[in-house]
Each structure stands twice: as C-alpha cells, then as structure tokens.
Amino acid sequence: MEKSKIETALNILNKQLNQPLVAALEVCARCGICAEACHYYQAEPTPENVPAARAEELRKVYRQGNDFLSRLFPAWTGATQLTETKLTELADLAFNKCTLCYRCTINCPLGVDTPLLMTALRAMSTASGHAPEILEMLADAAIEKGRDTSIYLDFFKESIQDMEAELRSLTGNPNASIPVQKQGAKILYVALAGAHTILPAAAVFETIGESWTLSIFEAANYGLFLGDASRAKEIAKRIVDEANELGVEEIVISECGHAYYAMRWLAPNWFGDAFNFRVRSIVEVIAEYIQDARLQLDPSANPETITYHDSCNLGRKGGVIEESRLILQAAASNFYEMTPNREEAYCCGGGAGLVAVPETYDLRMLAGKPKADQVKRCGAQMVAAACENCRLQLGDLSGHYGLGVGVVSLVDVVVKAMRLPGAPESIEEQMTSKVHLKV
Ligand code: SF4
Ligand code: SF4
Q1: Is the CB of 28 under 6 A from ligand 1?
Q2: Which residues form the domain of 142?
Q3: How far is the CA of 222 from the centre of ligand 2 (A)?
Q4: Residue-averaged pLDDT of the chain
Q5: Please, which residues have CB within 8 angstroms of residue 157's CB and are 6 or more apart in sequence?
Q6: DSSP H helical ranges for 74-149
Q7: If you take atom 2 of ligand 2, which residue's CA is the nearest one?
Q8: 282 and 148 in one domain?
Q9: Nearest to residue 320, comparing CAs of 294, 353, 281, 366?
Q10: Is the domain of 108 the same as that of 155?
Q11: For a 10 Å CB count at each end of the chain, is N or C smaller?
Q12: Are 216 and 193 in contact (CB under 8 A)?
C-alpha cells in the first residue's frame, strides 16, 4: 500500500516535469535572499522557513530519480528516497508552509519559482491521498454541482428572487433585478456563495444599467488549491460552458483572488478556442465605470481612515493593482497606503486554501503576523480587501492581535459611496446587514 502511494506521488512529479518546473528544480544559488521575502520566515526566522530550504526538500527527491550522480552517490548530493514519512512531511510543507504568494519569486535574483515547486508538491500529495480532506470535499462538491444543476437550480432561483426584494429596497428601484441565465447578456457575473457577493455588485450593475446576468455557479476553485489541474479545469469548465451557452462578451469575477487568477490567467490555456471572451475582476469593471463617469460616488460617505490590502492572487499574480486605488480614492475620503504595498505587499497568511481548513488557525495566525503588524503600524480604522479569503483572514487577525480594524470589501465601500436610498447608514451596519451577510 505504502509503495503504491509513493509510486503515485513520483509518477505525478515526473508527469509535471516541464521546462518551467525543471528550471525551478535545477536553479538556485542558495543565496538566501528569499528568506526575508517570506511572511513565514518574517514571523518565525528559522532555517526551515526559508523558501529555498522548502524547495530543497523536493529537489532532494527529484535528484534521486533524475540525477545520475545522485543515484550513485546520494550522500554527496543530498538526494533522498521518497518514503511514506517523507511524503507526509512534504505534504505538510506544501499545504501548510507556503501560501503560493510569489513574494519570494519576485525578490529572488534568479526568479526561482518556489511556489511552482510547492504546487507540484501539492499535486503529488493530493494524488497520493495526503491533501486536506476539506479541500477535496469542496472541489468535488463543485464538480458534482456542474454535472447535474437540476438538483439545486430551483432553490437557487428562489433565493435570487428573495434577494431581488432586498436589491429593490437598497436601490430604491422597483424594477431592479438579478437576471439568471439571461441569453445574450454582455457580462456573466460569477459570485461566491452568499448574498454579500451578489447584492452589492447587482446594485452597481442595475444602477448604471449594465447588461448582465448572474452565473448559477460559484467562482471559487478548490481544485487549484489541491494542485490538481484536472479538477481545477473541470470546475472552471462549468463557467466556460455557461458563458458560451449564453453568448456573453465577458466573464466578471467577484472579489476573489484565486478565482480571478484561475479564470484570467490559467483557463485560457486550458480551453484554447472555446475560450473566446474577456475575463475581468469586478474591481477592474468598477474602476472603468468610475473613469468613464458612469458611476457617481460621494467619498464623504466613507470618512473613516481606510487602507488597502493587496491580495497576492489579484495583485502580484494577477496585475490588478492600480484599479483598487482608483476606486478607494473615488469612494473614500481618507484612504492611505500601508507599507509595503502593491507587488511587494505581504500575504495575509491565509491564502492558497488555508482559511478553509479549520485546523490551520494557529498556523495562520502565526503566518499572518507580518500583515497584522503592518495593519497596526498603519493605524487605519478600516482595511479594504478585494478577496474573500483575505477578508476572512484579516478579520481573524484583527481579533487575534486586537487590531480593532473593520474589514470591508471594495464593493461594499463603493455601494456606500453611491448614497443609495436603502443603504445602511454606516459601513459597520452594512457589514451586518443582509446586503453583506452570507445566505
Ligand atoms: S530561491 Fe532565489 S533568493 Fe532563494 S536562495 Fe535560491 S537563488 Fe537565492
Ligand atoms: S510563495 Fe510566499 S509563502 Fe511560499 S515560500 Fe514563497 S514567499 Fe513563502
């Protein structure tokens, strides 16, 4: 049994050995510059928390199977035979000790892609049965939903009708609607689970008269966290098929970093010619509405001091950076940056699926300490983040470290600045209202 798990893991490693992965496995000057870039090392400066040291654990296994000298003299090169114990250790490294944030890569003089190595390790761990069970369950549930939508579609449409009543009272527009499966709409908006990711975006779309429809699927892609390309592709395919069937011009992803990254940067390679629409984040779309003067905002509606946390997937990896600033400058009167920011922003410590795994709480709080310190130093009353994962982690960090900051979504800030007739008075009230609460 043990042997077959090891064989499975090695088989997956060998299958993934393309040029970028081999380059990441072969190249490292061992200079250690990446250490300070990693939030795990910043939180706990131990040798094993250096990104290159983590990568070395996979390199040892790779050398054993792929390097002639290592096969003859493993002690010389540090090559390691993969065992069940080693596999368990590697799975822990891949899933718990790296949030795939890419801060080490952009600070490495050689651009070594350590997160790519950690993703390869996740794939090996998943295939050999070492992935967190909850991530597998969430990925499989999403795939199942795509196979037979009839099971939940009626219930989904009923909940949307209830939400429409909320939308009408929020916007003061008795004709405001949340269209579902609308043929020929320009935008297919893909939300997360919960009204809080649907209603504020719907208020924006309906107020400016956008042609849009709501996806019947959720944007989250847990296949990505598993390092399992085939499950990630299957989850994305549900949305790609829906977009093709409806004939939309573009897919707009809710405030979710990894979902945006998967659909914007990975899916076009997965689907080739079947992928003939644009993909944007709701952040980019709202920034464009503001720039084109289609959306009028009153920044005095958000007088609190507010800062912005760059999600790694949306910012450093996704390239959506200045759009968030444009929105906050237009929607709030006291926006200022925490440092470092933009491409150099620290990960919140809860990315790559960690917030979905309850057992990782202590680890997340430790890994998120550099972010918590940053927020504290900055002294803002509010932190805005355009990623659900980051917001959950920032909320936990605020409680754990006594930061006393409110954590809000960018779209929540925008909706408040729209001065809609049914909008809650304060952002705190909005965060606890039905507009924000998960259903
Ligand atoms: S990964 Fe890059 S920064 Fe880190 S030790 Fe290797 S070469 Fe140096
Ligand atoms: S990707 Fe981020 S978490 Fe992973 S080793 Fe690099 S800096 Fe650390």
Answers
A1: yes
A2: 135-288
A3: 19
A4: 93
A5: 180
A6: 74-77, 84-96, 103-107, 114-127, 133-147
A7: 101
A8: yes
A9: 281
A10: no
A11: N
A12: no
* pLDDT above 70: residue 291: yes
360 pLDDT above the threshold of 50: yes
**88, 105, 131 — which closes off a domain?**
131
Query: Hey, whose CA ends up nearest to atom 6 of ligand 1?
Result: 28
Same domain, 150 and 280: yes
Residue type, 348: C
Phi, psi of 214, deg, nearest 5: -90, 135
Helix (H, G, I), strand (E, B) or coil at 186: coil
pLDDT confidence tier of residue 217, bands split at 50, 70 and 90:
very high
Q: What is the pLDDT of residue 402?
A: 97
CA end-to-end distance (rounded Å), the chain: 43
Q: In ligand 1, which atom is closest to the CA atom of 107?
A: 3
Looking at the structure, tell me whether residues 140 and 284 fall in a common domain: yes
- Residue 230: phi and psi, rounded to 5, are -70, -40
The reply to whether 391 falls in a domain is yes
Model confidence at 107: pLDDT above 60? yes
Residue that finishes a domain, picked among 267, 288, 309? 288
| Residue 277 sits in the same domain as residue 300 | no
Is residue 151 in contact with ligand 1, taking CB distance under 6 Å?
Answer: no
The CATH number covering residue 334 comes to 3.40.50
- Residue 219 exposed, middle or buried by CB count within 10 Å (0-12, 13-18, 19+): buried
Q: How many domains does the chain have?
A: 3
For residue 335, list its beta bridge partners.
306
Asked if residue 299 has a cis previous peptide bond (ω within 30° of 0), the answer is no
Q: Are residues 127 and 141 in the same domain?
A: no
**Residue 337's closest CA among 287, 346, 294, 229?**
346
Give me the half-sphere count of Cα atoms (radius 13 Å) on the Cβ side of residue 56. Answer: 14
Give the containing element (helix H, strand E) for 62. Answer: helix 51-66
Token couple for 310: 């760059």
Q: If you count DSSP H runs as helices and E runs as strands, how many of each does the chain have, helices first?
A: 23, 7
Ligand nearest to the CA of 48: 2
What are 20's two structure tokens?
């970028």
Residues facing residue 278 across a β-bridge: 250
Q: For 300, which DSSP code?
A: G
pLDDT number for residue 422: 85
CA distance 301 to 437: 21
